[in-house]
Structures are given as structure tokens and as C-alpha cells.
Amino acid sequence: MDSAKIMIHVRFAPNGSVTEISERPDAASDQQWFNHLSRNTVNCYESLSGGRGLFRVPTEQLITLKTEYS
Predict the structure, then answer these.
(1) Which pTM was predicted?
(2) Is 54 left (phi over 0), alpha (psi -120 to 50) or beta?
């Protein structure tokens, strides 16, 4: 059975920097959290139109990724 996944929404500025991202730990900036997810997940990111993107991360993996910023 496929594990449950959390959807993490991302918004980008016209210059490509991250302006907003969900599920972000308090200790990380929006850009730091995006970079961390990009480096530590595989095949979880989907580009969307309008300066947006979406990560679909398994719940267990997201918990682990968040604790790295605690």
C-alpha cells in the first residue's frame, strides 16, 4: 500500500526565489526549506504554472526532514 503524502505548496518571485512555502519549520526561511526539500527528496517535486510548484512528500519522510531543523 502506498504511504500517505503531504502536499507542500511553493510560490516563486519572478526572479526565481521562493516567496512562500507550506509546512516550513520556524527555524528555516522559505528559501532554506525549499533547498532542503530539493536536496533531500527524489521525484517529489512538480512544477506548476504561474510561479508555483508542489512537493508530494511521504508523511514519515516529512517528519524526518522537519526534525533536522529543530
Answers:
(1) 0.91
(2) beta
